[in-house]
Amino acid sequence: MRFDIITIFPEIFRGVFEFGIIRRAIEAGLIEIAVNDLRNYTDGRHRQVDDRPFGGGAGMVMKPEPLFRAAEGLTEGEIEPAIVLLSPQGRVFDQSIALDYASRPHVVLICGRYEGVDERVVEHLVTDEVSIGDYILSGGEIPAMVFVDAVTRLIPGALGDAESAEQESFTTGLLDYPHYTRPAEFRGMSAPEVLTNGNHAEIERWRREKAIEKTLKRRPDLIRAASLSKSQGIAIQKAGDESENET
Ligand code: 9WO
Fold first, then answer.
1. Of the residues 58, 157, 219, 240, which has the fewest C-beta atoms closer than 10 A?
2. Beta strands in the chain (DSSP E)
3. pTM across the whole model
4. Hey, whose CA ends up nearest to atom 6 of ligand 1?
5. How far does the centroid of ligand 1 lie from the alpha carbon of residue 225, in Å?
6. Domains along the chain?
């Protein structure tokens, strides 16, 4: 899978893809990431990527020509290119959207800056607009990093054995269970006994129960959206009944 990032600030990406799972995925040949400087797709001595907004107002707008030239050049000959604009107006990114992109051979990511991009880019070049959440940033570069990170983890072979086991918990649509490590007692705070007694069936049960409790309390919206097994459904029912009985 190849990611092509289009940005006016390629230096921002220096380092971010050189660690951990992403680095390993690159080394294994599972992904390739190219950071493309939008200015290389301008013409003229001024290498101009922005201009004043029609209709007036503050700030600048990204010109259409360099963005069309860059994205079309990078996807030449592709039948159904994925050209994603990271923008607060996009569909809000989540694990299931990440999973959809993980099976694509090539994704072009356009990072907006200034007041945004000329609307003709949105209407006639971009195939998907994606937001990483409801807040305004200074540009699309950090969202592009988030996108690459979340999608790469879902490419088969990108996670090691330990990490894939962990991944299961979000795939269920629940929040993660609490984690503990040594020492078993720290400043009078004990790790739960159940985790240290070696009963793996009991540990499994405890973790699932904690994941359900935490999800019900913090993100009940996830419970409604989750596709749960029959035993999980029953466990949630039980957790709900028990919390009703508490007060
Ligand atoms: C600025 C603004 C100010 C007042 C009211 C609404 C507003 N919207 C914006 C705006 O969208 N500015 C953008 C800044 C222009 C393009 C690049 N910028 C950007 C991308 N900010 N945040 C993102 C982004 C991308 C993906 N997911 C979350 C945020």
1. 58
2. 2-7, 32-37, 50-51, 61-62, 82-92, 106-111, 128-131, 185-186, 189-190
3. 0.93
4. 136
5. 28
6. 2-152 (3.40.1280.10), 169-246 (1.10.1270.20)
